[in-house]
Amino acid sequence: MEYLIGIQGPDFVLVAADNVAASSIIQMKHDYDKMFKLSEKILLLCVGEAGDTVQFAEYIQKNVQLYKMRNGYELSPAAAANFTRKNLADYLRSRTPYHVNLLLAGYDDTDGPGLFYMDYLSSLAKAPFAAHGYGRFILNLPSFTVRLIDKEGIHDLEKLTLGAK
Amino acid sequence: RLVCSFHVGIRGKDIVVLGVEKKSVAKLQEERTVRKICALDEHVCMAFAGLTADARIVINRARVECQSHRLTVEDPVTVEYITRYIATLKQRYTQSNGRRPFGISALIVGFDYDGTPRLYQTDPSGTYHAWKANAIGRSAKTVREFLEKNYTDEAIAGDNEAIKLAIKALLEVVQSGGKNIELAVIRRNQPLKILESKEIETLVAEIEKEKEEEAEKKKQKKST
């Protein structure tokens, strides 16, 4: 079971995602990174249907970069979140919806830190803390990637390894 | 609006330089809205001479193609690829009915992901060529001759030398000196940097000083 969690602090956002890529009972990878860097201060955490996750997240990532090239400055986290939600919503009632659950974490130079919860039905909520997945199974997940976003940018923190060693 | 100004591109060893003549704007006009050097991606940029409106379209298509390329093949474009894309786009408009060609010539510079610096030039017909150094716009021929004489391995040995060569080329054409020069550089693995007018003034002063020293030396040689 995949797990994402995000916590917004006074001037930072802390996010963590598990590192397992699994298909049914087979764990294929223990070093899979589920975070996508949209811009210097925005991370998109993405879980869900295999394939949909990467396809959707990379599409959003490249469009956020295109905005930066066209306009000379980066999208704000709120704008990026709404853009992501709109894309999800447009595809929802098509023949090819994306079954993905997302957390978008970012730091806006004017508004400060922000954490946005989105799910596969295209709901969007700005929340001080949020998670996707069933936390009970953390013990079966060998490690988590942990990152922090603040006014300086995205920082990698030490990987969390839980459970029996 | 026609942009009849002058542009120069220099390919150094670890740096590529684009220099553009900044036309003085009307008193009431905001200067910063006239941007002739545009980033296409983090490692590629271009300067254009010709119809600004046409350039906007081409630049937008190129920017989308840069991201599309990254999405499909997970690699940034090579400078040649994006030049070929722009050139193919321009050529299509020379052969379709009911459309007129894009009225722009472009200088495209950047680094490929293996670290090689590149400089390409395209014109409205859709042809493109790679250059070590080139100039487009008015008085381009005179400056190209200047570059043919002065583009040596010494001249591009370091980053600063390459930038100075670009400024020297621009000063051949631009009357009023540093104030009418806009300069952009890309260093390997670094994003596009547009030089501030202060930095340009400092470099122009250095060049003037070097010219004087050269002239002094020649005088002394003649007198001895």
Task: Give structural notes.
The complex is a heterodimer of chains A (165) and B (224). By secondary structure, chain A is an alpha+beta fold. Chain A has a single domain (4-161), classed as Glutamine Phosphoribosylpyrophosphate, subunit 1, domain 1. Helix content of chain A is 22%, strand content 41%. Chain A has helices at 52-71, 77-92, and strands at residues 4-8, 13-18, 21-23, 26-29, 35-39, 42-48, 100-108, 112-118, 124-126, 129-132, 143-150, 153-156, 160-161. In chain A, the strands form three sheets. In chain A, strands 1, 2, 10, 11, 12 and 13 form a six-stranded antiparallel beta sheet that branches. Chain A has a five-stranded antiparallel beta sheet with strand order 5-6-7-8-9, covered by helices on one side. A two-stranded antiparallel sheet of chain A has the order 3-4. In chain A, strand 1 (4-8) and strand 2 form a beta hairpin. Chain A starts with a strand and ends with a strand. In chain A, 41% of the residues are buried. Chain B contains five helices and eleven strands; from the N terminus they run βββββααββββααββα. Chain B has one domain (6-218): Aminohydrolase, N-terminal nucleophile (Ntn) domain (Glutamine Phosphoribosylpyrophosphate, subunit 1, domain 1), CATH 3.60.20.10. The N and C termini of chain B lie far apart (56 Å). The mean pLDDT of chain B is 89. In chain B, 41% of the residues are buried. The radius of gyration of chain B is 18 Å and the shape is globular. By secondary structure, chain B is of the alpha+beta class. Helices cover 41% and strands 26% of the residues of chain B. Chain B has helices spanning 52-73, 79-95, 140-150, 159-173, 197-223; strands at residues 2-3, 6-11, 15-21, 37-41, 44-51, 104-111, 117-122, 128-130, 133-137, 181-187, 193-194. The A-B interface holds A 58-59, 62-63, 65-66, 69-70 and B 39-41, 60, 63-64, 66-68, 70-71. Chain B: Its main location: nucleus. Chain B: This is Proteasome 20S subunit alpha 8. Chain B: It comes from Lates calcarifer. Chain B: One of its GO terms (cellular component) is cytosol. Chain B: Keywords: Coiled coil, Nucleus, Proteasome. Chain A: Keywords: Cytoplasm, Nucleus, Proteasome.
